[in-house]
Amino acid sequence: xxxxxxxxxxxxxxxxxxxxxxxxxxxxxxxxxxxxxxxxxxxxxxxxxxxxxxxxxxxxxxxxxxxxxxxxxxxxxxxxxxxxxxxxxxxxxxxxxxxxxxxxxxxxxxxxxxxxxxxxxxxxxxxxxxxxxxxxxxxxxxxxxxxxxxxxxxxxxxxxxxxxxxxxxxxxxxxxxx
Length: 178
Hints:
By secondary structure, this protein is mainly alpha-helical.
């Protein structure tokens, strides 16, 4: 079986590792994970910073040098890119329908568990009369509910910006902002 490092170029491996980080990491750490030299990792990380895919952050007062930056995905850029994908790939009606589907699922959970909010469902996890299987089921629903709330917020932002983004697509190159 081929390793993932055989399927991607060195720069693609650095991008894959760096853009999926959940916390800031050093050039050395990313280079090791991507199986590339320090110089290749540093060059690609700097390029990703220049293109707003990553942010360069410096360690706090842990005794580490400001000469040793860490890299983390630029979550703002990722979020805005996701909004663009939604508005480019889906009609306004499709986005509205997805919001409705999310609300239907949340409504079903509020009925099933006799709660009004996700917080109430979370508080119910400690009910003494729940079996282990029921607690695990509620935990799965809680994770799904959280994802649904995040998706709904993203969809709301996409809907709010839908016309503005569409207008930007139709502006001529001579009239669009530089």
